[in-house]
Amino acid sequence: MAEAVIRAEGVAMRFGARTLFEGVSFEVRRGEVFVILGGSGCGKSTLLKLLIGLLAPTAGTLSVLGEGIATLEGEARRGLLRRIGVMWQQGALLGSLSLRENVMLPIEAHTALPEAGRALVAAAKLGLVGLGDATERLPAEISGGMLKRAGIARAMALDPEILFLDEPSAGLDPITSAGLDQLILALAKETGTTFVVVTHELQSILAIGDRCIMLDKEAQGMIAEGDPRRLKAESAHPTVRAFFHREAL
After folding, report:
1. Do residues 129 and 152 make contact, with C-beta atoms less than 8 angstroms apart?
2. Is the pTM of this model over 0.90?
3. Which CATH code, of 3.40.50.620, 3.30.470.20, 3.90.1150.10, 3.40.50.300, is assigned to 1-83+162-168+193-249?
4. Which of residues 243 and 2 earns the better pLDDT score?
């Protein structure tokens, strides 16, 4: 079994008197595609923010690549953050820059490569996601699916060990979404990168997920963990079954 690159033990998140979730424990193994799923308001995006260090948990412990990301400071924190990449739901590209220039930004911020070297790396990453012919286009000139691919290219600019994707299929038509799923699988296989994907898109979950956890708003925590295909076939939990079979409760 591959080593765990993320460990969560008894993680809770509260906002004042409101508990979003508690008692969340799981591991993410190196090289797998791990999915965080659940309905609206269950805390998926908040858990993502905990995993990348934007928020600190109210209780419990969380380690990423062997480090307590919530407590790291200074250069140690910056060093860990250079080992992970994030693609936000809308791509978060700068509209005034070309795709190549967008991908070059983290390379310029975190390496000493000259401009020519940065441009070569950016072009290579865009080629990796199928945008080799669009490097000089602006974000406003490309489709929603291409924006997501460009966001992935930028997130991969520093060759991260873990890549976090926030709702990668949101707003895409079924054909474009399926193409993005295939890209994620291909990148995981070719690069060995660990993917952590936050989504509620059922078809994507079943297509790409090696393992998953499911959060639930009413339960204020995890209600399932495992292979999503097995959960669909075997889970007796009414909410899990309703989710995977698209049934009303």
Report:
1. yes
2. yes
3. 3.40.50.300
4. 243
